[in-house]
Amino acid sequence: MDDVAWAFVAGLAAVASILAAAVLPLGRLDLGRVRLFGAASIALTGAQALGAGLPGWLPLAVLAAGVGVAACGTRPKASRSPRT
Amino acid sequence: MTDAVPGVLRPPRLPPAAARPAVANLFVLTLLSTVDGTLLLLAASGQLGGLGGAVAAGLTLIAGAGSWLAAHQAFGARARTRRDWATLGLLAALTMASTVASVWLGARLGTALTLHVLPKAAGVVLFLVAAEVAGLRLPRPGRVPLALHVLAAALLVEVALVG
Fold first, then answer.
1. Would you state the torsion angle of the CA atoms of residues B56, B60, B64, B65, taken in this order, to the nearest 10 degrees?
2. Residue of chain A whose Cα is closest to the Cα of B65
C-alpha cells in the first residue's frame, strides 16, 4: 500500500479511538496511566524517527499495554461477603 | 425528549455550555499533529509505511491520550444529542482529510527532496511531545511550544543545506 492508504489507516484508528472514548464508559479507567504509557509510545516513535532499530509495532504494543494496565489496575475490589 | 420514561436510568445531562471548552480542546488536540508538521515529517521520513506505524501514529500522535480525555469530558458524561453526533462526524471528517493531506504532502516532500535534518528533528519533536503528554512543563519561549521552535529551526537549517 502507498502512503495515502496508510494515512487512511492512521486516520481511521484515530477516529475509532475518539469515538470509543466518547461513547464507552471510561469512568473506571485510570487515564493517568494511559497518559504515561501514551507518552512512552510517542517517545518510542521518536526513537524510531531518530534511527533506532526498533520494531514498528512496539509503540502500539506499549500503548495497548498501558490501556490494559489502566483497565486492570482500577478494577474495584470484590466486595467481601459478610462473615457469618 | 425521552427523559420522562419511568424506570429508565439515563446519564445526567450537563448544560451544553459546560461541554464547549472540552469540545474545542478535542478539536485542537486531534488536529494539531496534522497541522504542526509532526505527521508531515513522519511521512517524509517514511515512518508511516506499515500497519504498526500507521496505527501507532493514529492512536498516539493524531488522537492520543489528550484527545481521549477531551472526548470523554465532552461527550462521556452526558446523553449524546444529534448535535453531538454531528460534531463527532465533523471531527472525524476533518481528521481523515487533514491526515491524508498531511501525509500526502510529506510523502511528496520526501520523494522530491533528500532531507537531512528534518527527519531527525521529527524524532526530537516527538520526544518533546512525549514529555508534554507525560506532564512535564517545558519552556514556551514567546508562548509558542518548544516543539514548534525546534521544528522551525530544523526547517531553516534544512533550507540552508538544500540552498
1. 100
2. A35
